[in-house]
């Protein structure tokens, strides 16, 4: 397999790999995280505010009619009402978030213009979403996607985040256009777009994250170390609240993207189609013979047949460890099962650290792919 074959344009790969997934399959099992806030937002509080608002509203209307009799004062009140309206904070709708999604999706393909990797920024944008969410600690309820603290040093400089400045810079351009969106929402929506545009399953998503401060940044060492084994994976992902099955499903993200020796030290892609979400990662783990690569870099495996693919020690452990192996086998044999479990667990991953009452909706949204929107507008034109 030559490198040029790996560099198939994303759009073509995505179209070829497009699958129809029954909607019901993605109905997520909603979790109420341990981070659920104990402050504010209770029904009685809300009712109190509505009540106060109503009193103020009635008072306002009464004042309006009283002063309207005296035309000068009436004009003043009218203009005050207009100013109040203008000052009402912008309340984005699902359509507004879809616009952001579209802008991110359009950005992915611009990688081909500068011959970046395999012609898509989608894998690195997915890595950004994962690294901003995977810092969550369920015991201290710190970290996770809520505050997007990777914007701050030292978190931005943590070894695990090497290279993600590229992803943050790309997202910064989108943030300039849609300044109302929080970084946490922007980055996780990027992860959703990356998976969906690379022909993966739909990822139910909800907005509501808020921007935090440098003080909220997480300590180094919360993300997995690729040189380690099963105990380490269970410790790191267990801290986020994930079990063996979920660790294996999440690892399936390595169907896409590649390692870069100037970022992590490791080198190469996991699969022959690094811009399409498939279960090939699991298939290759079982079907190929993997040997330790002889080179000057960190310990990694290569496939015996082409020597062009790689596996990290933490990938290989999924077929070595009994607890993980049964799930890896199931995903290698059943793409639909992998897609369903991957969708559920990624959706949860992206919500780690976000208090439930912060979300603007209890029912998650399914964002449309660019292709679906194109098909829809074609139908409407007919
Ligand atoms: C199981 C523990 C994991 C370890 C040890 C690990 C480690 C790594 C390493 C070392 C790289 C290469 C970075 C580079 O050199 O550019 C990488 C890339 C990547 N990882 Fe993971 N990862 C893990 C889990 C995950 C998860 C849970 C996801 C997403 C749900 C993910 C998504 C990605 C993607 C998409 C890339 C490719 C980025 C690119 O192409 O630039 N990884 N990972």
Percent strand: under 5%
The strands making up the biggest β-sheet line up spatially as 3-4-5
Ligand inventory: protoporphyrin IX containing FE
Mean pLDDT, to the nearest integer, reads 85
Spans of at least 5 consecutive residues with low confidence: 1-70
Series of H and E elements:
HHHHHHHHHHEEHEEEHHHH
CATH topology of the largest domain: Peroxidase, domain 1
**Class by alpha and beta content:** mainly alpha
Total number of beta strands: 5
Q: Helical percent range?
A: 40-55%
CATH architecture of the largest domain: Orthogonal Bundle
Rg calculated over all Cα atoms: 24 Å
**CATH domain class name of the largest domain:** Mainly Alpha
Query: How many angstroms does the end-to-end distance come to?
Result: 42 Å
The total number of structural domains is 3
**Main sheet?**
3 strands, antiparallel
Number of helices: 15
The rough form would be described as globular
Subcellular location: Mitochondrion intermembrane space; Mitochondrion matrix
GO molecular function, one term: metal ion binding
Pfam families: peroxidase
EC number: 1.11.1.-
């Amino acid at each position: 397999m030559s490198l040029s074959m790996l560099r198939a344009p994303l759009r073509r790969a995505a179209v070829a790999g497009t699958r129809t997934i029954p909607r019901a399959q993605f109905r997520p099992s909603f979790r109420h995280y341990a981070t659920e806030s104990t402050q504010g937002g209770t029904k009685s509080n809300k009712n109190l505010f509505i009540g106060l608002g109503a009193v103020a509203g009635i008072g306002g209307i009464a004042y309006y009619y009283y002063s309207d009799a005296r035309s000068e004062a009436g004009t003043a009140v009218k203009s005050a009402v207009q100013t109040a309206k203008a000052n009402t904070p912008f309340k984005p709708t699902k359509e507004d978030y879809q616009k952001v999604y579209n802008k991110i999706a359009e950005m992915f393909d611009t990688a081909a213009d500068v011959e970046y990797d395999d012609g898509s920024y989608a894998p690195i944008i997915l890595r950004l979403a994962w690294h901003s969410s995977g810092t969550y600690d369920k015991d201290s309820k710190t970290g996770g996607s809520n505050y997007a603290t990777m914007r701050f040093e030292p978190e931005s400089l943590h070894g695990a985040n090497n290279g993600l400045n590229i992803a943050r810079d790309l997202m910064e351009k989108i943030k300039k256009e849609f300044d109302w969106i929080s970084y946490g929402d922007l980055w996780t929506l990027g992860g959703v777009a990356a998976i969906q545009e690379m022909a993966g399953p739909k990822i139910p998503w909800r907005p509501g994250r808020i921007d935090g401060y440098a003080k909220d940044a997480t300590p180094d060492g919360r993300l997995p170390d690729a040189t380690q084994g099963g105990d380490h994976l269970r410790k790191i992902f267990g801290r986020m609240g994930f079990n063996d099955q979920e660790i294996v499903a999440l690892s399936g993200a390595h169907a896409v993207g590649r390692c870069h020796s100037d970022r992590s030290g490791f080198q190469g892609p996991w699969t022959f189609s690094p811009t399409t979400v498939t279960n090939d990662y699991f298939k290759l783990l079982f079907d190929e013979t993997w040997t330790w690569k002889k080179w000057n870099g960190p310990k990694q495996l290569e496939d015996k047949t082409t020597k062009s693919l790689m596996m990290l020690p933490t990938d290989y452990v999924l077929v070595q460890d009994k607890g993980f192996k049964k799930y890896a086998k199931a995903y290698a044999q059943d793409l639909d099962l992998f897609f369903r479990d991957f969708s559920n667990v990624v959706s949860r991953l992206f919500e780690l650290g976000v208090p439930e009452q912060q979300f603007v909706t209890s029912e998650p949204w399914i964002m449309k792919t660019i292709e679906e929107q194109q098909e829809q507008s074609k139908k409407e034109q007919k």
